[in-house]
Amino acid sequence: MTHAANRPTQLANDRFVDNRVYSDPEVYDLEVERVFGNSWLFACHESEISNVGDYITTSNVGSPILVTRDHDERLRAYLNVCRHRGCRVVAGESGHASAFRCPYHFWVYSLEGDLVGLSGEEAYEGSGFRKEDHPLVELACQSVHGLVFVHFGENPPALVDWIGADIVGHLSEPLAHGDFVVVQRQTWELPINWKIFAENVRDGYHVPFVHPFFRKASPPGTYHVYDGGHAFQRLGMDPSGVDPDLWGQIRQYPLPGIEEGDGYIANIFPDFNVTLRSNVLSLDSQRIVSGDKVILENRTLGLADDTDEITAIRRLSHRTWFQNPVELEDMPIFRAQQEGVVSPHLRYSVIARGKDATTGSRGDDNRLRHFWHQWRSLMGTEANSIDPTMSGS
Q1: Residue 89 CB partners (closer than 8 Å, separation 6+)
Q2: Kind and range of the H or E element at 84?
């Protein structure tokens, strides 16, 4: 067992992972501060908060979040926490409100986050308490092509700069050319570390083995890696690998500016993914509950003027290209990998496949190493570990 715990000196630091990063509480606490505290995090789609007073609640890395649209129609995001006694202010997942009232002591906040009412206000006279000093804690909130992100840090870079012009340009196909809405929202609770999913969606090596349908029906295109840990890959669709009756349905109604069979997956660090499959867009993110629990969240996009028939086709396409493969094939692998990497007797795993490149095919580990490069940059470590003995040659 000793040899399995030793640093693999035959590999460069970026070509192996210290498996303790998937389970060590200290690693997770540092990730909350350094990775998630310094990254733009996907929150929702603009169609979910299209009107003044519309809101949606979510949470990530231990913080409840409220996203709304204020009286000037601006996107606003706040910690969904009352400044009085720390109670969650809004309980529902989504809705419409003219103001937000905490259920504990009825403190009331405006859409702009200001504390505008509280019961028994006169009791605070002479205490030094002032309402204007206790607004909801506001988070940076920006959107690109209808995708809404929040940031926990102060003075973050502009969202479009964080994502980068190349990825923003790719997302414009087709998001800049139609009125998109969420036609389906699903969640799955999984007992895994967040990096298991983030790696999997960048890992093309597993696709022919885990996904037999993709082996026949989804020829890979080239990928590109970009600054900031982001990546992009074209995805093909081969009708000869699809049941003819099914193909006859899912080939219909391509999205604006998209040709039949076009597709891609865009990976936005740390854990947000946009997948296009000709006539449907899949938005996939994680709500991270703890170091060993996540809620995988999917939003399926269609067009605002779709008929019920078209929406049904888009949902069928999503089920074919995403939901079935993930639920039936990827999720068992997620669990199996998590069960393995927590073993104290196997200290490291390997991401050594393929030469380093900014573009290539799906069968190597470049995108995994690229993910870990950004992780190391934010975590302030030279190895895919926070153990100093894992660094160096």
Answers
A1: 66, 80, 81, 82, 100, 101, 102, 103, 109, 136
A2: none
| Contact assessment for residue 281 and residue 257, using Cβ atoms and an 8 Å cutoff | no
Report pLDDT for 220: 86
> All domains of the chain, ordered by start, with CATH?
38-151 (2.102.10.10), 177-375 (3.90.380.10)
Rounded to whole angstroms, the Cα distance separating 285 from 317 reads: 19
Quote the pLDDT of residue 157. Answer: 97
Render pLDDT for 289-316 as a digit per residue (tens, 0 to 9).
Answer: 999 999 999 999 999 999 999 999 999 9
Which residues in the chain land under pLDDT 70? Answer: 1-5, 362-363, 391-393
Distance from C-alpha of 272 to C-alpha of 202, rounded to nearest angstrom: 11
- Compute the residue count for the chain: 393
Per-residue buried b or exposed e for 341-367, using 16+ beta carbons within 10 Å of the residue's own CB: beeeeebbbebeebeeeeebebebbbb
Q: Give me the torsion for CA of 110, 112, 115, 118, rounded to 10°.
A: 0
